[in-house]
Design brief:
76% of the residues lie in helices and 0% in strands. The protein has helices at 8-21, 26-40, 46-56, 63-103, 110-139, 144-164, 168-187, 193-205, 213-223, 232-243, 249-261, 270-301, 312-331, 333-337, 343-358, 363-379. The longest helix is centred in the N-terminal third of the chain and has 41 residues, at 63-103. With 385 residues, it is mainly alpha-helical.
């Protein structure tokens, strides 16, 4: 029943189960959490769950992970938040680190190369599907000048990824603060520059001179990404490929694919980047930093973070940063396409696009089918990247 205190053993078991079966990204995670916490166990009432889900959409970082942490905290306090959050994250994280160790070897086995090549090709279609769906939902609530501003933010996000790569976070913040300023002026309040300037300075100046490169990349992934899990793709790519050279375009494309064929949040893809940069220690280090802000936001904010749903400034900021983040996802298609070299990969990407955009199959089944096709092609002697 709502308000019931639940033991840590139960939380670890139930959240760990979700971590193992949580394929399909945030929509699947939210559905699983609702079924567990509202429908089957009655630990939360439906209204509180919906409010919590809406509030996490206004926070930076992986929303479904934050929702999982919040639900665990509500029934188990802060110890429950830690236990539930880790149980939700660790199964998929362990899987993706194992796959990274196999595929990032100097001479990975043939089947692993085929799996990467097939799943990586399908990722291009996933980018288009996710971008299209998010663009529709992001632009639908607006009309008039607000709609036109949203389109400008979307184009700015795409251009940022294509032209300046690692600077995409700064563009997201600028778009968010721009929309917040417009909304405040409409209400007769002061513009947002005064309250947002410290964040802009931090995003523009903090880097390798102040923090290790990997720590800064992971912090941006976990603490400065708005608009859904796939926003981390252009954020990570700018650093991992263009700025620091830890990975090639092809290797990064494969990392994104691994994040799709394993359960749990898309954010755990940062573990593959960390592995490429500094081995197993780098994978664990990057993951801890990327997920750290989610635990801090929920555990320190408690139930007060639900008030974000009614906060006009928070919604205005996300109305600017959100479309820019969607544009960044579209923009990521261009550099990611550079990692697809072979004709059979492009054919597989085209089939995946039809299945995702026209037939509207789920992302996880299409990625897994493409991975299997890649393994078959590799074992049959097809050329490999």
């Amino acid at each position: 029943m709502a308000g019931e205190r639940v033991g840590l053993g139960t939380i670890v078991r139930e959240w760990g189960r979700l971590g193992v079966i949580g394929f399909g990204g945030p929509p699947a995670h939210v559905a699983l959490l609702r079924d567990l916490c509202v429908e089957r166990r009655g630990w939360l009432d439906a209204r509180e769950f919906e409010d919590a889900n809406a509030a996490t959409q206004l926070l930076p970082g992986p929303a479904s992970t934050q929702l999982a942490i919040y639900c665990a905290q509500r029934i188990g306090g802060r110890p429950g938040a830690v236990a539930g959050g880790l149980a939700f994250i660790l199964p998929g994280l362990a899987m993706i680190i194992v796959l990274a160790a196999i595929t990032l070897r100097s001479s990975p086995p043939t089947w692993a190369r085929g799996l990467e090549a097939g799943a990586g090709a399908a990722v291009l279609a996933v980018i288009l599907r996710v971008g299209y769906d998010l663009a529709r939902s992001s632009l639908a609530p607006h009309e008039g000048s607000r709609l036109w501003r949203s389109v400008v933010y979307l184009v700015a996000g795409a251009a940022a990824v294509i032209l300046i790569g690692a600077g995409v976070v700064l563009v997201l913040l600028v778009c968010g603060l721009a929309e917040l300023s417009f909304r405040r002026l409409e209400r007769g309040d002061a513009p947002a520059l005064s309250v947002g300037l410290p964040a802009l300075v931090l995003a523009a100046t903090t880097g390798a001179a102040a923090l290790p490169d990997l720590a800064w990349t992971a912090l941006k992934v976990g603490g400065l990404s708005y608009g859904g899990g796939f926003v981390i793709v252009p954020i990570m790519q700018g650093d991992a490929v263009d700025r620091f050279g830890w990975m090639t375009n092809g290797e990064f494309l494969n990392a994104v694919a691994l994040g799709q064929i394993t359960p749990g949040p898309v954010t755990q893809t940062v573990a593959v980047v960390g592995y490429a940069a500094a081995g197993l220690g780098g994978a664990l280090f990057a993951s801890a930093i990327a997920f750290g802000p989610s635990f801090a936001l929920i555990m320190l904010g408690g139930r007060r973070f639900l008030a974000l749903r009614e906060n006009l400034d928070a919604r205005a900021f996300l109305d600017g940063a959100g479309p820019a983040a969607v544009g960044a996802i579209f923009g990521a298609f261009v550099p990611l396409a550079g990692g697809v070299d072979l004709a059979w990969q492009w054919a597989l990407a085209a089939v995946a696009a039809v299945l995702l955009l026209a037939v509207r199959l789920g992302v996880a089944p299409v990625i897994l089918a493409a991975a299997a096709a890649g393994v078959v092609a590799a074992l049959a002697g097809a050329p490999l990247p």
